[in-house]
Amino acid sequence: MSGTTTRIFYILPVVRGPLLLLGLVSCLATVTAWGADFVVTNTNPTGPGSLDEAIANANGVIGEDRILFNIPGAGVHRIDVSQKGLPELSESVVIDGFSQPGAKPNSLAVGDNAVILIQIDGQLNQAPVGLRLNKGYDTNTQQYRPGNFAIRGLSITGFVQTDSNGVATGGIGLSSFSVDSALIAGNLIGLAPDGETGRGNYIGVVSGPGNIVGGTDPASRNVISGNTLYGIDGKGVVNGNYIGTNANGSKPVPNRTGIYYTGETPNIVIGGTAPGAGNVISGNTTAIQFGTSFRTNFPYPHTVFVTGNRARIQGNFIGTAADGVSPLSNKFSIEIAY
Ligand SMILES: [Ca+2]
User: What are the b/e assignments for 87-104, b being 16+ CB within 10 Å?
Assistant: First the structure.
């Protein structure tokens, strides 16, 4: 949006989602098509009506599109993408699992009555990763495409790939380099749609600065549990989630580490003072871990990779159930490498 390009400011005509609330006034380098809706109508891994095709179509149309669900039949619809991983999300898009008829977000301040009917599953197969948020480069404009993403109302399970390609590994992958913003809200990550059964990813969410995992309203709460390495790896704001518990926040469904951070500019906010901002981080092996100490690793016996500098951890329940009273312990609460 610089140089000789004409800037056009316009008011979006319709408010359709949280991303758009943030973007009521947009500055665009060119006249951009208003987003389209792509509806997933079956659980096939590929082909017409599949999630795979909806993502490809949304990527192919300039504009902030929505991917919605209207799969016939009652109950949970599991989309098995173990044989062919999903395409990357290469520009701004909303994926809304709550659009499936019968699904609804949580409305309880304590506990969880969300109905999640769309499960995206990697079948505990090493090959695929889940949703990869990675804005693409447009060779026509010689700029990156807008990368504002929202992922809501999904159960994301069984993505156990352990070798990162730098963008994503596990359930939802995003980073400071691949997105402008991301809102991850109202999902079960590593937890089956029943809200009880762990079906972990290797890492639940790979996050980055400026991203929001959860929110202060009950509808935005993610339950991030059962993941074999980390529930959340990265920076950004983490509010209002249950991490390491079942959906009700009453029983353990452990992540190895609930929230892990490593790097040089921590800038992470876990919880806060606003009503609903606190997370429940309980039932894990380690609740929160900042950094990895390599003091015992040859040839850097005293190297410290990171500390928890500039991180804020505030107003959370760590080691209790969601009621804030009943014990639901982690093995370790907060580890800071030094
Ligand atoms: Ca698009």
Answer: bbbbbbbbbbbbbbeebe
Tell me whether residue 18 is in a domain.
yes
Distances (CA, A) of 219 to 142, 153, 247: 38, 9, 13
- Measure the CA angle with vertex 99, ends 254 and 235; round to 5°: 40
CA of 180 to the centre of ligand 1 (A): 15
Number of structural domains the chain divides into:
1
With 0-12 / 13-18 / 19 or more C-beta atoms within 10 angstroms meaning exposed / middle / buried, residue 197 is: middle
Name the burial class of residue 137, with classes exposed (0-12), middle (13-18) and buried (19+) by CB atoms within 10 angstroms of its CB.
Answer: exposed
- For residue 2, being part of any structural domain is answered with no
Write the pLDDT tens digit of every residue in 245-296. 999 999 999 999 999 887 655 578 999 999 999 999 999 999 998 876 554 4
Radius of gyration of the chain (CA): 20
Cα of 161 vs centre of ligand 1, distance in Å, is 27
Residue 278 CB neighbours (<10 A)? 22
Asked whether residue 130 is domain-assigned, the answer is yes
User: What are the Cα distances from residue 13, in Å, to 17, 20, 62, 335?
Assistant: 12, 10, 17, 48
Domain that holds residue 234: 8-336
Give me the residue label for tokens 């380690």.
286
What's the whole-model pTM score? 0.85
Cα 56 to middle of ligand 1, angstroms: 9
**Domain assignment present for 3:** no
**C-alpha of residue 216 to centroid of ligand 1, in Å:** 28
In angstroms, rounded to a whole number, what is the distance separating the alpha carbons of residues 127 and 232?
21
User: How many angstroms separate the alpha carbon of residue 34 from the centre of ligand 1?
Assistant: 9
Report pLDDT digits (tens) over 116-162.
999 999 998 877 789 999 898 888 889 999 999 999 999 999 998 87
